[in-house]
Amino acid sequence: ASVSEPAQKCCTENIQPFLTSILEELMGPVSSGFTEVRSLFEKEVNEIIQDFQKTNDMTRLKENVDQFMTLPFNSVKMEPCYLKVNLLQELLQDLKNRFKVYRIDFVIQRTQNFMQELMENAVYTFEQLFSPSLQADSAKVATTIEKVKLRVLK
């Protein structure tokens, strides 16, 4: 009870006025990281479509989709997404000094984990929506992949 009032006053005067601007600063790298995840997903699906249009090979398409399912765990391909969030290191350093924010690496790591989780969900959803189409007429497969891609991106 004796600490509550001074703590509230401290938060109201020294932290709350800055929260909006801090959030805006932090959202830049976070948003660009998630945008990069979206772009990577779209690029990889487009490559599957292009390969299928060239080969019209359903076996190879299945192999490409299986390979695509490992995308969230492919550190080389996911690296550009993760690098966008590393900009938080500099932004959070300023917060560390001003507000005694510790565990900057934890914030970055959790953000990168969420990015990987988002990619996992996207490829899983893609596979679930597309897998019934693997039995369909090969003439419609490229169009179906495009529709599924757009649905997942939505």
TrEMBL record:
Residues 9-154 form the Niban 1/2/3 domain. It comes from the Eukaryota. Transmembrane segments: none annotated. Belongs to the Niban family. This is NIBAN protein.
